[in-house]
Amino acid sequence: MANAVASSSRDRPARNRSSMHSLLQHDPHDGVVITKEVFHRSRSESVKHDTIRIINQYEFKLRVGKGQHGEVYLAEDSIRNYMQVAVKVVRRKNKTDRLKKLRRNPDLPRTPHTPLVDQLGSTEHKIRKEIAIMKKLNHPHVVRLLEVIDDPLTDKIYMVMEYLGGGEIKWRTKSDNPLLRVDQTRRICRDVILGLEYLHYQGIIHRDIKPANLLWTADRRTVKISDFGVSTFSYAQRLAAAGKGNIKDDDTDPILMDESDLSKTAGTPMFLAPEIVYDASDDDIVVSQTSPHSSSTLQLQTQTQAPRQRPQVTKAIDIWAFGVTLYGLLFGILPFNAKSEYEIYRVIRTQDWEVPEAMGLDQLPTGGRYQKGVGRRPADYRLLPNTEGAQVVDLLSRLLEKNCEKRITLDQVKRHPWITRDLHSPEDWLHETALTRYLQLEPTHAETNSAMSSVRFRWLPRIGNRILSTLRNVKPQRSFRRPPRQQDDEKDNVGVHSEPHVVHLARHQTTTGNPSHGRPHHHHHGSIREKAKSRRPSRQDLLRNKSTNDIGTKSGKPFEPWAMWNNGSAPGPSKSKGTETGLQVPSQQSRVTSPLPSPVGSSQVTTPVSEYPPSYSPDGERPRSRVMRWVSILSGGHRQASYASSSNSPMYEANTSLANLRPHQVAATAPASRDSVDALSSGHVTSRQSSISMSGKFTKAMRAASWTAPEFAQVRPSEDLTSLYSAERGDDVDEETLMWGAGGIAQSPVPSQPNSALLSTVSSVQSIGPPVSAAHALRSRTEAAAAEAPEISHQDPCAHPRHTPTAARLRTTSPLARVSYNPEETIDGSESEDEEVSYDSADDDSNSSFRPRGRRPGGANIILNEDVDLDASSGDGGSSTFDLQPSTSQRYQDEDDESEDEDEVHLEVRTRRPSQSAAEMSPPRRSLSTHRPRERPMICT
Ligand SMILES: Nc1ncnc2c1ncn2[C@@H]1O[C@H](COP(=O)(O)OP(=O)(O)OP(=O)(O)O)[C@@H](O)[C@H]1O
Predict the structure, then answer these.
(1) What is the C-alpha to C-alpha distance for residues 320 and 697, in angstroms, rounded to an integer?
(2) Where is the Protein kinase domain (predicted)?
(3) How far is the CA of 667 from the centre of ligand 1 (A)?
(4) Which atom of ligand 1 is nearest to the CA of 66?
């Protein structure tokens, strides 16, 4: 068989070379893999009687969320050592699209060549725009898109993203109290600012900044911006930010160039900026608040008055939304509230906001809305009192500036005294996190182009392939069925699979960069899968990991793309003894998405068995009918032939030579050459790896971004960026940190004793007011929280795997320890009885957004008490949660309701929302669902 393949390859070198190229379906610009073929499989787990759905190499595990157009699943990448990824599954068309189409011209067929103008507004257009935007992005504080599986012959598009195991930022309790301490909030803010800065540089306006779109990494040290569903690209902004010389090809992607979205209302109402909800009839309304400091009254009037002409919608809307988010994190409530959507817009436009007396979980005093020297225009921070409260109110007043032209810029935010307050050296931080520094590390066009080839979709082979698989499905031949996995594994053991398809760059090799500890991982042929399998977590493990997820367990490794941004200079120590911890970075060929049969005896097999569609047999010995053979030849020029013939190509040679290298040799080779060889060795990340190696300080910068303190760099000077973003750092993440999360809270771990908590709080409060009140408040909260907590069970999602003594966790007041997912709920459908903090179900999608709260700081805004007719429908079974204004995802829920997967196998649905028991504890809010105004959809992108 192999000989036949080889001979046919000699006959058609040209075609085969192009076939080879077609296998390397990388986007030439940014390393996002574009896959044009999708293969569905399913596998039964004999033990748990579950069926695992498999799309290409991704094994779907749990549903972690539902977005505007589809659902997000946790999946494992079987060719990357079962790394966790998030896969967003979206339909090209939803019900609305079909109705629109019917109304317009039912006879007009819609093809990929349909003019853009006809596609505008369609679901597919929105998805494509989201993809086009995400493809541009590669930043440590922005969720990264890794692969798009977009098979024109199927109805769905799969967006494979890095998985953020920490979930959304939870920011308030059911009783509207903040969940995060002030310093935690500040660290989150620093991460968001850096991410936003990058987005704006790229010409992207996010338009939906809110807590629910800020996701934690699994170790809860880093926050990343997610959800670009309503984002917009502004060419003008990109030009202004980057300059003409830096404009790239993808900046002129037609799908991005449509800026009409900007004029539409999109986002979450409570977070919308005044210029978005502008209404000319408000022009005569001058909003002013009576300030106790008469000198600042005039300033406040200027500050809160909206401009008289319709302002342009610019990136400043993100800064406003960031201000609302900051306010929410600090106070557990949002600054603008009202009963209806219309009302909230008016309030946003015309009313000032209030400041509660205390902020954060630690209840630091704010000093009130009006303080001397606060909110001065122009800014003069020398006159600003050096108290946390005064500084944060000053920042808020600049973020929540109704006049977008006077609103603070991101660059100014970065330099604001509150943001840099706890930094050892603000100047260093600013220097290290400067966007210009980061951009220098981006790969050049030449680098990416030398590493990747673009591919066009091959209609003929694809259609042939379809026919082939259809024929097979119609008449299944029992004896020809693919052997069970076990047999695959046995094949592995006899060497059907060889190393070349996976270049072993051990994770720790890449993270530590310390050659003295390094030991290359040697694999016997065929043992790779076995090892991976042995390490592969069971479903139960997975769920358990998900619960502890979030604290960076070794088994629950979330995929951190940045972990692969390494110089690969030398192997490093494996922290996990007795198990293979190496991150197997696939070669280009292993990233091939077309499933290929393996030539027997060939040592250049690049496709693991797990990639085969059911219709293929890896041994290539399956008897076929003549028709099938012809169809097969038609469909791929016979892939084996084309594949084998690719040995003529330089790429093949490069890969083969790399394949023959030992891991450490590969690692040693990588940084030396930045062109094809190392590019092939590690796929799209390689050029970046070498880029990273150019700047050791980058690591420090990114650590500073999240962790604040240069002390960390001193503690672990050799640790590089990859370890910062790796969830495998179980060694240095202490329990309290994991409990509290928030970007390096380890610096100031929560005191385990209430008394020391009191002391530490007092020390931070003493300078600004009566110490007793704040300290007492914290102590009361601590005690109350401990009293409330019935018992922390093994289900505690934030429990550290190694230290889970109940007592230890009980002493922690961290609500974060109790807000995470409840994995058990998804296992058997039951709820955890250990839920300690009841969260408002409307809360977790930030959507939180539009919920009139009982606790308002008082003042001008409308106050809706919790007992306002909220119980009316409490007995309705809690069919819906109270949310006067649906979140972006909720708004599309109706559209998505019909989007049930017809080809979807049964999957456990894991609810990210608070469990029912939590909802039951808050009947008033559920009952408010009846008041939710559905008549006016607000998101109209
Ligand atoms: N990369 C990821 N890792 C982990 N969870 C994710 C990831 N991306 C999305 N999610 C989760 O999946 C859910 C849906 O995400 P998506 O961004 O598609 O929804 P959405 O449109 O943002 O919804 P909404 O706007 O209402 O928040 C969210 O709750 C989010 O927390």
Answers:
(1) 32
(2) 58-419
(3) 35
(4) 14
Which amino acid is residue 594, in one-letter code? S
- Say whether 90 sits in a helix, a strand or coil: strand
Q: Are 275 and 317 in contact (CB under 8 A)?
A: yes
Q: Is 72 in the pocket of ligand 1 (CB under 6 A)?
A: yes
Among residues of the chain, what percentage have pLDDT more than 70?
A: 36
212 or 802: whose pLDDT is higher?
212
> Which residues on adjacent β-strands are paired with residue 582?
506
Best probe residue, ligand 1, of 126, 142, 215 (max atoms within 8 Å of C-beta): 215
Q: Which helix (H) or strand (E) holds 59?
A: strand 58-66
- Cα of 157 to ligand 1 centre, how many Å? 16
**Nearest-atom index, ligand 1, CA of 162:** 1
> What is the position in ligand 1's atom list of the atom closest to the CA of 208?
25
- Phi and psi of 761, rounded to 5°? -65, -45
At residue 239 the predicted structure's pLDDT band, cuts being 50, 70 and 90, is confident
Q: Which residues sit opposite 84 in a β-bridge?
A: 76, 558
**Of ligand 1's atoms, which has the minimum distance to the CA of residue 229?**
21
- The arithmetic mean of pLDDT across residues 59-76, rounded, is 90
Q: Which helix (H) or strand (E) is 464 found in, with range?
A: helix 459-474
Fold of 29-103+118-163: Phosphorylase Kinase; domain 1 (3.30.200)
553 in contact with ligand 1, CB cutoff 6 A: no
With a 6 A CB cut-off, is 168 part of the ligand 1 pocket?
A: yes
Residue nearest to atom 19 of ligand 1 (CA): 67
Q: Is 208 a catalytic residue?
A: yes
| 0.95 exceeded by pTM | no
The DSSP call for residue 811 is: T
Higher pLDDT, 619 or 93: 93
Predicted interface score ipTM higher than 0.95? yes
Q: Tell me: pLDDT of 335 over 60.
A: yes
Please check the confidence at residue 336 and state whether its pLDDT lies above 90: yes
Report domain extents, the chain.
Answer: 29-103+118-163, 164-244+255-279+311-443
Find, among 746, 655, 677, 734, the residue nearest to 707 by Cα: 746
Least Cα distance to 349 among 410, 272, 423, 421 occurs for 272
Q: Which residues pair with 738 in a beta bridge?
A: none
pLDDT exceeds 70 at position 410: yes
pLDDT at residue 310 in the model: 79
Say how many residues make up the chain.
941
Which of the residue ranges 149-153, 237-241, 367-371, 396-400 would you say has the lowest mean pLDDT?
Answer: 237-241
Phi, psi of 634 (to 5 degrees): -60, -40
**Strand 33-35, strand 145-150: pairing:** parallel
Pairing label, strands 223-225, 214-216: antiparallel
CB atoms within 10 A of CB 417: 18
Take residue 872 and report the two structure tokens written for it.
């009316």
Residue 88 is labelled as binding a ligand? yes
Quick: pLDDT tens for 128-151: 999 999 998 999 999 999 999 999
**Interatomic CA distance for residues 126 and 132, integer angstroms:** 10
Instruction: Identify the three-state secondary structure at position 369.
Output: coil
Q: What is the pLDDT of residue 63?
A: 94
888 lines ligand 1 (CB under 6 A): yes
User: What dotted CATH number matches 164-244+255-279+311-443?
Assistant: 1.10.510.10
CB-based contact 795:836 (threshold 8 Å): no
Q: Residue 83 forms beta bridges with which residues?
A: 77
Q: Which helix (H) or strand (E) holds 474?
A: helix 459-474
Asked if residue 287 has pLDDT above 80, the reply is no
* pLDDT above 50 (res 414): yes
Three-class SS state of 889: helix
Mean pLDDT of the chain: 59
Q: What is the distance in A from the centroid of ligand 1 to the CA of 470?
A: 35
Task: For residue range 620-672, list pLDDT tens digits in order.
Answer: 334 444 555 555 555 544 433 333 333 333 333 333 333 343 434 433 333 33
